[in-house]
Amino acid sequence: MALNTRIGPTAIAAALGLSALASAGSAQAITCSSVIQDKGLTHVIYGSGGSAITATLAKVAYVLSKANPPITVFYQDAGGAQVGYQTLKNGNGGTTARPFKYWLALSDVTGTAPQCTADDVTAGRPVDFATTGGTLALFGETLPADLGTFIGPTQGVNVIVPKDSTESAISTEALYTVYGFGPAANLADATNPIPWTKKEYIIQRASTSFVQQLVRGAIQSLGGNATNFPPDFGNAATPTLTHSASGKDDNQGTVDSLVWAAGQNHAQDAIGFTSGPTADKNRAVVHTLAYQHAGQTAAYWPDSSPESFDKINIRNGQYYLWDTNQFFTKITGSNAKPKLSQIVNEDVRNFIGYFSGELTLPDGSDDVTKAVVDTGSIPLCAMKVQRETDFTGLSCYAPAEPCGCFFESIATKTTTCDACTKDSECSGSTPKCHSYEYHDDQGAVKNAGFCEAY
Amino acid sequence: MNSTTYRLSNRSRLATSFLIGAAAVLGSLAACSSDGGNPSPSKPPVITTGGGGHGGGTIDGEAGENSEGGSAPKGGAGNGKAGGSNGGAGGRVVEDGGAGEGGQAGEGPLGPTCPTTDLEFLNQPSSSQKTPFDNTKRLGAAAALPPLPGG
Question: What is the ipTM for the molecules in this complex?
Answer without folding.
Answer: 0.89
